[in-house]
Amino acid sequence: MVDYITRDGVALLQVNNPPVNALSHNVRAEIKNGLDEAGQDKQIKAIVISGKRSFIAGADITEFKSGSYSEWPTIIDLCDLIESSGKPVVAAIKGFALGGGHEIAISCHYRIAHEKSKFGFPEVDIGILPAAGGTQRFPRLVGLEAALDLIPSGRHIGAAQAFKLGIVDKVVRGDAVEEAVKFAKSIAGEPLVDRRTSQRPVMGAENAVSLRDAAVKLAMKKKKGMIAPIHCIKAVMGSLLPFEQGMEIEASEGFMLFTSGQMGALQYAFFAQRAAPKWSLPCGASFKTVKGRPIRNAAVIGAGTMGTGIAMAMLNAGIPVTLVEQDRKFLDKGVSLLKLLYAGSVSLRKITQDQCDAILSKLNTAVGYKSLTNVDLVIEAVYENMALKKQIFAELDRICPPETFLWTNTSALDIDEIASATRRPDKVLGTHFFVPAYHMKLLENVRGKLTSAETVASAQMFGTRIGKIPVVVGNCHGFVGNRMLHKYAHESDFLIEEGCWPEDVDMVAENFGLPLGPFKVRDLS
Ligand SMILES: CCCCCCC/C=C/C(=O)SCCNC(=O)CCNC(=O)[C@H](O)C(C)(C)COP(=O)(O)OP(=O)(O)OC[C@H]1O[C@@H](n2cnc3c(N)ncnc32)[C@H](O)[C@@H]1OP(=O)(O)O
């Protein structure tokens, strides 16, 4: 799990724990053994810590449930051992240095990073905080302001920004490990006293109160209903005290999170999101046995809210899209809406004007279906009317090549009945997008009784490609998402009958953490 390699006076500890080099208990134990061995070997003058393929993506999240995250040696122990090492320790970072991996990196005396590496503290999104000294060392490395930005937000940053902030000492284009070994040799024997992060002062302390208040305000807006960001902020503020006292504050803030229901729920969601795209069918076919067909180009029928949203989701992923309407007036309206949304993204600086132009260059439009003779996929997104959908599918079946997938965006209609209008029911599937389709992550891929495994595999692959979390569901009224939503909607309606105002119901749901309350969602569709 951790290879120990010696190179001309340098000990290289290379973590090899696929898929993401999480710091499971065995890994921690082997890192500690490697540090001990290197410390005792008189021939070794410096140590490099790296990861095979990628650096370290953090603690092993499964251990927060099992409890073994707190078994000796913990990540706290490792960070202390690394920082107090008498021989220089250099982190060689490629890929991800996240969470506990980032904490290990900032406990090293130097950091050499590949230009494409990524840094972050995503703990907040799984309901905890960087509890291995991250809330204490990070402000000492980058200053209070940057720490209050990056720890409560969980945002990843690239190597260039990490260098600007002082996280990284050198950014390299070539092999970070080779560069780090070379660098480690060059600094062997140099004093380490000013390289120990925990011994540094925190920059920006004079503005502590205003920085804290701004961070709290932002966290309450951006991570509504979540308790972890506030505990992160409190722990970071503890860094203004001497290091040991700050560590105690980190531990007590961390304790409240490690025993919270939110931690359990967010970590359940972390694994559920990764499990959802893995599908299997009663016939035995599964994501392991059946390969999907890549979608090279697509058409969307209907330029309303759903159709334009779906087209945008595909355009964002670089898939050329033809947006189709029966009437030029509706088509123009849809295209204007789509352009307006992209212009909004440019003005909010989410994308540049050049990126916007490149995206829009992949958009074609058509009135009628005649031009759809060379598309891999058509997604129909007209309003929920069975007769209309069947008529469209019959026509698409006549015009599109026999291998073209014909998928329908429906939230409730019977996929088998729609498929019966075609001679290719094996290629028909329901794609239930959620409003706004360019943004919402969930995609229900609804399997009809004759939908083939290849079609399911292709829809799942397509979903992942356009940045969704695709889930295969059965063909029944309301599928899964709307069956759940119906209960939620009924309860919201009962509250209105009992005298609440819709805006009050929305406010409670939003304070709980939902981006939009139930009545605002209904207004959208
Ligand atoms: C008293 C002691 C106190 C100790 C305090 C400890 C403080 C430290 C806390 C932490 O470090 S918490 C963890 C922080 N890190 C993260 O949250 C990173 C999570 N992972 C990711 O964001 C992504 O996986 C990635 C690294 C960006 C890679 O993304 P990619 O899309 O390439 O892969 P995934 O599909 O997400 O993951 C592949 C595979 O790996 C599993 N996995 C990922 N990260 C972890 C992890 N940290 N622990 C355990 N397992 C992890 C993931 O579930 C996937 O599994 P499979 O679905 O393939 O089975």
Automatic annotation (TrEMBL):
Gene Ontology CC annotation, any one: peroxisome
InterPro entries attached to this UniProt entry: 3-OHacyl-CoA_DH_NAD-bd, 3HC_DH_C, 6-PGluconate_DH-like_C_sf, ClpP/crotonase-like_dom_sf, Enoyl-CoA_hydra/iso, NAD(P)-bd_dom_sf
Biological process terms in GO annotation: fatty acid beta-oxidation
Coiled-coil segments: none
Catalytic activity: (3S)-hydroxydecanoyl-CoA = (2E)-decenoyl-CoA + H2O; (2S,3S)-3-hydroxy-2-methylbutanoyl-CoA = (2E)-2-methylbut-2-enoyl-CoA + H2O; (3E,5Z)-tetradecadienoyl-CoA = (2E,5Z)-tetradecadienoyl-CoA; (3E,5Z)-octadienoyl-CoA = (2E,5Z)-octadienoyl-CoA
Domain 3-hydroxyacyl-CoA dehydrogenase C-terminal: 478-524
EC number(s) reported in the record: 1.1.1.35, 5.3.3.8
Gene3D superfamilies cross-referenced by the UniProt entry: 1.10.1040.50, 2-enoyl-CoA Hydratase, Chain A, domain 1, NAD(P)-binding Rossmann-like Domain
Alphabetically ordered keywords of this record: Fatty acid metabolism, Isomerase, Lipid metabolism, Lyase, Multifunctional enzyme, NAD, Oxidoreductase, Peroxisome
GO molecular function, one term: delta(3)-delta(2)-enoyl-CoA isomerase activity
Domain named 3-hydroxyacyl-CoA dehydrogenase NAD binding: residues: 298-475
Pathway(s) the chain acts in: Lipid metabolism; fatty acid beta-oxidation
CDD domains: crotonase-like
Membrane-crossing residue ranges in chain numbering: none
Location in or out of the cell: Peroxisome
Subunit structure: Monomer.
Family: In the C-terminal section; belongs to the 3-hydroxyacyl-CoA dehydrogenase family.
Name of the protein this chain belongs to: Peroxisomal bifunctional enzyme
Species lineage: Eukaryota, Metazoa, Spiralia, Lophotrochozoa, Annelida
